[in-house]
């Protein structure tokens, strides 16, 4: 492994590079997460335009420092950017990378601080301790694995109307491969199903909402997505009790039939499917809206302005999804297989449902999935009409 200089988003930094991306690197860096960081830059920039004062950002698990450094270079209206990691090798690399930006740091009371504006502050602390001791208007939490150990501290630390970005890379438990691991971490048993990517995202959102509610704060999801190997949720905090209550009233059960692919959501679980099969059932999870259309429109404009084309394409798909408030989607290949039918073209089914007056579009969660306000029976009819 070696230390190499890379460029990301117009920013040059040093990172450790090995034969493969792994936690064995002295300081972890994953080039595929540039996609995540590009969207985060745009999202925080949109929030900064709406915020009534300069932002105090915390990159709680900084590693190389690339995310926080990019925020400082690419986002306006910032007062401070805190870069934190308990790994001493990471601190060395962060300081080296800040020096590469022409910043001189002075050690003051155990912290390294720049004299520039925005001010960069580097700390070597456990992330939970740092968050518990400070208040930030924006918190970026991007751990290697599950974010669960840190979410309570994030909820405690975030400003009353601040902005939060949280990543989860433990997709196997969240998507049902390891249901007990998901139950242990998130308090909900997941299961394997054709909409497992959205189920995983909603389990993550549910955990964040519950943890924030303990601190008398609402976590309002604005923009959540799945990409390759990770989930990412962007949302805003609010102290309004009415918003906390509204979120908690949107919790319910998901019941799924492995035999025919039908699913139900509601306040009570559905023990049996119409076909007679016993249903798989989650614990209570958040079934409300996970996207804010106005916010996503602003993010798309910001992504377009910055030339982040791949990220813009994903956001545009999610924008169309946000117009259909029903939770979960249908995987047409899965349903076709249960009907012993050949896979049908997605656009044919979408057009058929639209002609019947339903909303329908593709979903970013699965290339063979559609989101619609039509029920399962109508989707099956649309599939059969195109395969008969």
Describe the structure.
It is built from 14 helices and 18 strands. The protein is of the alpha+beta class and 388 residues long. A nine-stranded mixed β-sheet has the order 5-6-7-4-3-8-9-11-10, with helices on both faces. Strands 12, 13, 14 and 15 form a four-stranded antiparallel β-sheet that branches. It has a three-stranded antiparallel β-sheet with strand order 16-18-17. A hairpin with a 2-residue loop joins strand 1 (2-8) and strand 2. The protein is elongated, with a radius of gyration of 22 Å. The chain folds into two domains: 2-248, Vaccinia Virus protein VP39 (Rossmann fold), CATH 3.40.50; 329-388, N2,N2-dimethylguanosine tRNA methyltransferase, C-terminal domain (Phenylalanyl-tRNA Synthetase, Chain B, domain 1). The model has no long low-confidence stretch (mean pLDDT 95).
- pLDDT < 50 runs, ≥5 residues: none
Tell me the total number of β-strands: 18
Tally the helices: what do you get?
14
Relative helix content: 25-40%
CATH class of the largest domain: Alpha Beta
> What would the principal axes of the Cα set say about the shape?
elongated
Mean pLDDT: 95
Number of domains: 2
What is the radius of gyration computed over CA atoms, rounded to a whole number of angstroms? 22 Å
Strand order of the largest sheet: 5-6-7-4-3-8-9-11-10
Classify the fold: give the CATH topology of the largest domain.
Answer: Rossmann fold
Task: Report how far the terminal alpha carbons are from each other.
Answer: 57 Å
In what range is the share of β-strand residues? 25-35%
Within CATH, the superfamily of the largest domain carries the name Vaccinia Virus protein VP39
